[in-house]
Amino acid sequence: MLDVKLYNSPVRPTWCPGCGDFGILNAVKQALAELEIWPHEVVFVSGIGCGSKLPDYIHANGFTTLHGRALPVAQGIKLANPSLHVIAVTGDGDGYGIGGNHFLHALRRNPDITHIVEDNMVYGLTKGQTSPTSPKGWVSTTTPDGSIERAVNPLALALAGGATFVARGFSGNPKHLAKIIARAIRHKGYALVDVLQPCVIFNRVNTYDWYRERVYLLDDEPGYDPSHFEAAWEKAHEWHDRIPLGVLYETTDQPSYEEQVPALKDGPVATRPLLPLPDHEAEQLLAEFR
Amino acid sequence: MGTSELTLKLAGEAGQGVESSGAGFARALHRAGLHVFTWSDYMSRIRGGHNAFAIRVSREHPVAAPSDRVQLLLAFDEASIDEHTAEMDPSGAVLLDEPLARAAERAERSGSGARVWLAPFSRLAEEAGGSKVMANTVALGMAAALMGVGLETIEEVIRENFGSKKGGAVADANVKVARAGFEYAQATWGGQFPWKIGPAARNGRKAILINGNQALGLGALAGGCRFIAAYPMTPASSLYEWLTAHADRHGLVSKQAEDEIAAILMAIGASYAGARAMTSTSGGGFSLMVEALGLAGMAEVPVVIVDAQRPGPSTGMPTRTGQGDLLFAIHASQGEFPRIVLAPGSQEECFEVGARAFNLAEKYQCPVIVLTDGFLANSYKTSPEAAFAPTRVVIDRGETLQSEDGAKLDGPYARYKVTPSGISPRALPGLPWSVHLASSDEHTELGHFEDEDPDNRKEQAAKRMRKLESARAEMRPPERYGPDDAELTLVGWGSSRGAIQEAVDVLAAEGVRANALHFVDVWPFAAAAVEAVQRARYLVVVEGNLTGQFARLIRAETGRKADEVITRDDGRPITPGYILTRLEGLKVHAGREAV
């Protein structure tokens, strides 16, 4: 196990006191330390939003990209250098709203990346508007009469889209979250970790206490088998009174996207030396046009 | 009797194989030692509609522009007659399939003067043991006979194209059918076609026949491209497809993305990780990429973006050509950051730019936009092989740090270190002595988010922009064609190169001292280009858009207002004849009005 301090950034987070993102940051560091991944071996790719500031707050490679755009950047990095651990960090608006299309396509590709979604069911950084995971009837500055749309169910969507690893964590239980994240990083393929993350300013409903009264660990559920799709599908729809935490679904029967790319058979393209084409290759290319 | 050059055109409905058999015939003519230049005109549909593929063939001189007159038209449908008889040379000939007799009468009445010959394309195809779909092969056999080009090279290309399909039976049938057409034409029209070009001796000159997209792809491959992500869009798709076909063998990752937004972002991700990365699209796709263009600018990630232009706005004219994206490419995205824009004007320049774009992108750690267009992308040209030597390409990664560079650091690695050149040494992620923190937000030297400190902002913004000034010194001035002291200077950029240079030749033959300035490096405006433009006595800018965008750029960068601007925005390529006609209209034909 590495020292967690290894990942300390010189920058102090600008998150509000009590923000659920602190728990996620701690859990991520814990997971890396446990897996003995050095800062230079991992890249955090984020979008835009409170949680997407995370690469700034951890000493590791990082790339803060654009609102909703972390997943394609993350996939590009992984495709160029599969030896790097790639962890995408987005919010719920970021990941399921503006980035919805990228999410959908990442699911069916199964790139070997970990996707942590800081899901507070509200837009925090832009000050409290409705998010794709806000429940129907949610009142905000952009839905003063209550949201008419139903909420996205990220776990069900991920399962339906072909995700090979689907988990839910709670930032109020960082120890458990760290374990899930570590398992997600170890998983060969796309791993979604949706994290219930209270926004202490703009979400006065889904508070720490609200969650604590409802969450339970799937590990404590007798006979729960995460390799069972039907069981996972059922758990993905459990909400309101009982909210399951843990790995809902994991399958290892699908190869990762990168494993199937012929150009990567000889190692990462990013680190291969760049040399002029050898004579015989050049000759063969030109012959095509003679 | 012989001729030094001619143009033949294949025209018909989409689905009749106009494009593919045209390209095959062009290769056969190229193999016969002739200089070939092709361009195509097709509609945005899979079946039906009107398509044309033109081949300009020359014995002695390389050709690099479309001609304005057609000597031999192979017409596969009635519409071809209506579309193309106006272009016919009076001494030329139109060959059309027998069942189109009504159209033949119309063609004869059109007054072009060209001979109209009913030809049994489909009948012969069937009689020779093939099927009706081989009508175009019959037509090509006939064309070969009329042009005096032997059948051997055509047979060779047929065998290459059809390969061992159905055990070579398809190739055999096509060869037979071509021969039937050849023999019929010789017997029927023998000496009546005055444009007999015959094969030519290449005398050891090694040449290839390549189109703009292939040349760009070849250049990219030679330049170390290791990653392409794209979303299909005409006329850029064939570049992406060519690279994909060679991806596995050359260690290049090719990814079809869910949209153009993802395509450029994947390329940016791959480049951040250290792979030379590109994306290719047309203007509509580039519009979607603009947000990510800004990300590459702010995060200082090298990326090559090919915009094969077609007329806009919006979906515009998908299969036509134009040069309407210049100012958009230069200004796209909010805020200010450096980018480089290159516009190759020939197949040779496509190759050269395809490789150089990566060097510039990595050296200046910024996006490089390559502007081609539908015309150049699809045009094949006989080109000297020496101009495409992949082994001669020099790869320059600029200030990309290696693992041994870590020892030189005296503090934590600063991705955005403020330097006099504006270029901050780039450590790729994965080096044990550094972490690489990149950011779309304004950031400190270390890459940390910083939007409060105005001094930091000023330093970082100025640092980024200094790269543009460093690049400006490296940008190449326009290439001058023609005499130094001309009365008339034609200025162009990108794909109009061949047409403009040919116009200069025609003017010279008429006794007009004209020259041309051809720009490849269009942004930043080369420091060395200013003088070249200011020296022009009478400056005429020629470009494929409505409003004269390059003329505006020249005025902004040099203060020199163009005396005239010749524009074309009907979706068709600029031809020498188009330029010359417009010059007459402008009454500056001899440049005399100017002086």
From TrEMBL, chain A:
CC cofactor: [4Fe-4S] cluster; thiamine diphosphate; Mg(2+)
- Presence of keyword Magnesium: yes
Is Iron one of the keywords UniProt gives this record? yes
> Do you know which CDD domains this protein is assigned to?
TPP_OGFOR (cd03375)
Protein keywords: Iron, Iron-sulfur, Magnesium, Metal-binding, Oxidoreductase, Thiamine pyrophosphate
Q: Could you tell me which InterPro entries the record lists for this protein?
A: 2-oxoacid:Fd_oxidoreductase (IPR051457), OFOB (IPR011896), PFO_beta_C (IPR032686), THDP-binding (IPR029061), TPP_enzyme_TPP-bd (IPR011766)
Q: What are the Pyruvate ferredoxin oxidoreductase beta subunit C-terminal domain coordinates in residue numbering?
A: 199-265
Q: Where is the Thiamine pyrophosphate enzyme TPP-binding domain?
A: 55-195
Supply the PANTHER family for this chain: 2-OXOGLUTARATE OXIDOREDUCTASE SUBUNIT KORB (PTHR48084:SF4), 2-OXOGLUTARATE OXIDOREDUCTASE SUBUNIT KORB-RELATED (PTHR48084)
Protein name (Swiss-Prot/TrEMBL): 2-oxoacid:ferredoxin oxidoreductase subunit beta
Tell me the organism.
Carboxydichorda subterranea
TrEMBL record, chain B:
Q: Does the keyword Ribonucleoprotein apply?
A: no
The record's annotation in InterPro entries points to: 2-oxoacid/accept_OxRdtase_asu, Pyruvate:ferred/Flavod_OxRd, Pyrv/ketoisovalerate_OxRed_cat, Pyrv_Fd/Flavodoxin_OxRdtase_N, Pyrv_flavodox_OxRed_cen, THDP-binding, Transketo_C/PFOR_II, Transketolase_C
Q: Which residues form the Transketolase C-terminal domain?
A: 486-546
Region Disordered, as annotated, extends over 445-483
> What's in the keyword line of the UniProt record?
Oxidoreductase
What are the residue boundaries of the Pyruvate/ketoisovalerate oxidoreductase catalytic domain, all occurrences included?
A: 14-183
Write one Pfam family the protein is assigned to: POR_N
- Domain Pyruvate flavodoxin/ferredoxin oxidoreductase pyrimidine binding, by residue range, is 219-387
Q: What is this protein called?
A: 2-oxoacid:acceptor oxidoreductase subunit alpha
Origin organism is Carboxydichorda subterranea
